[in-house]
Amino acid sequence: xxxxxxxxxxxxxxxxxxxxxxxxxxxxxxVLDAFGHVSARSAADPDRFYLARNMAPGRVTSExxxxxxxxxxxxxxxxxYLEKYxxxxxxxxxxxxTGVVHSHSPAVIPFxxxxxxxxxxxxxxxxxxxxxxxxxxxxxxxxxxxxxxRDARTGAALADALGPHAVVLMRGHGSxxxxxxxxxxxxxxxxxxxxxxxxxxxxxxxxxxxxTPQEGAAAWRTNSSQVVRAWDVWREEVRVP
Length: 241
Ligand code: MN
Hints:
- The chain is built from 8 helices and 7 strands, in the order H-E-E-E-H-E-H-E-H-H-E-E-H-H-H.
- The chain has helices at 10-28, 84-93, 110-113, 138-141, 152-162, 182-205, 213-224, 227-238, and strands at 37-41, 48-52, 65-69, 99-103, 134-135, 167-170, 174-179.
- Strands 3-2-1-4-7-6-5 form a 7-stranded mixed sheet, sandwiched between helices.
- Helix 1 (10-28) packs across helix 8 and helix 6 crosses helix 8 (227-238).
- The longest helix has 24 residues, at 182-205.
- The protein is globular and about 55 Å long.
- It starts with 9 loop residues before the first helix and ends with a helix.
- Bound molecules: manganese (II) ion.
- Residues 83, 102, 104, 173-174 line the site of manganese (II) ion.
């Protein structure tokens, strides 16, 4: 946050610090590159969320974090991400969600542009087991859009496609992973990408056996208590000494 934005409650200062780390973790794990973004809901005010200003995620510091309302408005005059509506409308539609990752992570995209669903092939991605919907932006903006989520109406349509699920794919574009904590959303974005790569490789080899919905749910119950282990080690890897 800029100096003038200091005075945040302690809980939100912690969130801003974690959000900076989340940006760097997601770059280090190949989920974000020069594009994509990650946000966290305010702990002090559930109708606000934090997101970096319009910049490459790998360079984000706490000075670069902007605070938004659920109408995607900020008092910060610096340019914000065009696709901030993804975050705003998912926080509006999903009170349980406190972290959102939007990426163009490459292994996931084949599953957004073919009739092959993204499904869990390893226990770490059990959160994919119920369903991974695909958002078709042409259904909302026709055949000549630039595929970006540029307004609240399109953001709400994406949130509707996500429904109660952990991940939604965006045809010709990327994906969104959500979680009930910021580390949870980061974990899901990382393992959606890992699972997609393994699923594509397995499909080349032969008939694939997927986790059942029950296995996926059971695996996620186990792994959700271990998210902090991944978060702690990934955070150490990106911490500037
Ligand atoms: Mn995008």
